[in-house]
Structure formats: C-alpha cells, structure tokens
Specification:
The chain is mainly alpha-helical. It has one domain. The chain contains 6 helices and no strands. The longest helix has 24 residues.
C-alpha cells in the first residue's frame, strides 16, 4: 500500500492553518464564511479575508507549478449541469450554515455537535451521490 504523502502533508497544513487562524485571530477558516464576509465587508474584518483568499489562490498556483498538480480543463458533463451542480452546492452551503471546510475541519476540531452532524450528512449525501452516479445513471 502506498501512503499518499502529499495528501497527508496537505491535510496537516489545513489543520495547522485552521488552528493558527483560530488561536491567533479568533476566526474560523470556513471558506463560505470567508467569502460571505467579503461580500458584506466590515472595516476591521476585511483584510484578513482577502489575504486568506489570495493565499488559497497562490497556494493552488504553487501546487501546480512546484508539484505538477493536475488541474482538469475538460469535463465529461455539460455546462448547464455543471452550473446546476454549483448552484446546488451554494444552496446546500447556505442551508447547512457553512461548508465542508468550516464544519469538517474547524467545527469537528472544536467538537461542535452541529458541525459533526453536518459533516456526517455531507458524507452520507456524497456517498449516495456517487452510488447513484456510478450505478444508477
């Protein structure tokens, strides 16, 4: 069995960065919350959000440049279906009061019951979606 070192290292970086943001800044590293804060800015709460988003973009670019990470450029589904999927993710994020990063990484780390339940629901729905996509459709 091969150990996926890059995935393990990436997960460790996510955990450390989320912990540091919470300990040093008192903020939760949930992407939907970060982006929502950019759309409804408050004076003192604006700069760190932009730095967070720029760090995600530059981190992705660094992954492609330094590690040769593959970024898909062709999709096997239609553009309308891709748009519908994106809208459903956005609606689910709003209904769930957060995204997988906020609930799964930060919420579970804080032992939030709401986040544990939300993450279990995310994973269950993801499993059902994969099953339907691969075995029924």
């Amino acid at each position: 069995m091969t150990i996926p070192w890059l995935s393990l290292f990436g997960g460790m970086l996510l955990g450390v960065s989320a912990t540091l943001l919470l300990l040093l800044n008192g903020k939760i590293a949930g992407i939907s919350g970060v982006l929502t804060g950019l759309m409804t800015p408050k004076k003192k709460d604006y700069a760190w959000r932009w730095l967070f988003v720029l760090g995600m973009i530059s981190g992705g670019a660094a992954g492609v440049y330094f590690f040769g990470a593959h970024v898909p450029t062709e999709y096997t589904i239609s553009t309308p279906l891709l748009i519908i999927a994106g809208l459903l993710v956005g609606i689910g994020t709003r209904l769930g009061n957060g995204c997988t990063s906020g609930h799964g990484i930060c919420g579970i780390g804080r032992l939030s019951v709401r986040s544990i339940v939300a993450t279990c629901v995310f994973m269950l729905v993801a499993g059902i979606t994969v099953f339907v996509r691969l075995h029924i459709l």
